[in-house]
Amino acid sequence: MGKVILFIAQSTDGYIAREDGSIDWLRDDPEEDYGYEEFFHTIDTVFLGRKTYDHIFELAEEFPYKMKDVYVVSNSREGHDKYATYLQPEQTLPLVNMLKNEQNKTIWVVGGANLIHYFISAGLIDEYQIFIQPTLIGKGIPLFQKNDHEEELQLTETNAYPDGMLAITYQRKEQSH
């Protein structure tokens, strides 16, 4: 069976972006990738929200996920473009279940905040890899929005980097019936 992973960085005070969506505060150290390359090679499929997808083209010289199957969840776009297939929100759950359970795919939920909230609320995330950068940005877009979903997680790994970045990995705790 495949799995759904949230691999994301946040500020120490819990934000994934500034209020305007900017991520200029995030570290971009050419000497340290915090395990990104290794992680990236384990991924088959990428899910992004439309705003995050559009923002990539402002930040990157070339599309970083072109070797992956890319799905963009959008209320306003349909079909596909050069890099991605667009989904309506209601198409997400059946597709994720098919990719994960029938095709054994490893899925990365890249962001943004609304898509992450949807995946958390639907109980779709199997593993959380959260990188806490030692930076306070004061206000912004929080990683975790309020929701009614409650779930126990199990800590499986921690890694403290010399620059102060802290990586924590949680997996969904198996419920005993």
Distance between the ends: 20 Å
Shape: globular
Radius of gyration: 16 Å
Q: Roughly how much helix do the residues carry, as a percent range?
A: 10-25%
| SSE series | EEHEHEEHEHEEEE
Indicate the mean pLDDT: 93
Give unreliable regions as ranges.
none
Task: Count every helix, treating DSSP H or I runs of 4 or more residues as helices.
Answer: 4
Strand content: 25-35%
Query: What's the total count of β strands?
Result: 10
Structural class: alpha/beta
Question: How would a crystallographer describe the biggest sheet?
Answer: 8 strands, mixed
Give the neighbour order of strands across the main sheet: 5-4-3-6-1-7-10-9
Overview in brief:
The chain is an alpha/beta fold and 177 residues long.
Task: Describe this entry's structure for a reader.
The chain is an alpha/beta fold. Helix content is 21%, strand content 31%. It has 4 helices and 10 strands. The protein has helices at 36-40, 50-59, 89-102, 113-121, and strands spanning 3-11, 15-17, 45-49, 69-73, 85-87, 106-111, 127-133, 141-142, 153-160, 166-172. It has an 8-stranded mixed beta sheet with strand order 5-4-3-6-1-7-10-9. It has a two-stranded antiparallel sheet with strand order 2-8. Helix 2 links the parallel strand 3 and strand 4. The longest helix is centred in the middle third of the chain and has 14 residues, at 89-102. The protein starts with a strand and ends in a 5-residue tail after the last strand. The model has no long low-confidence stretch (mean pLDDT 93).
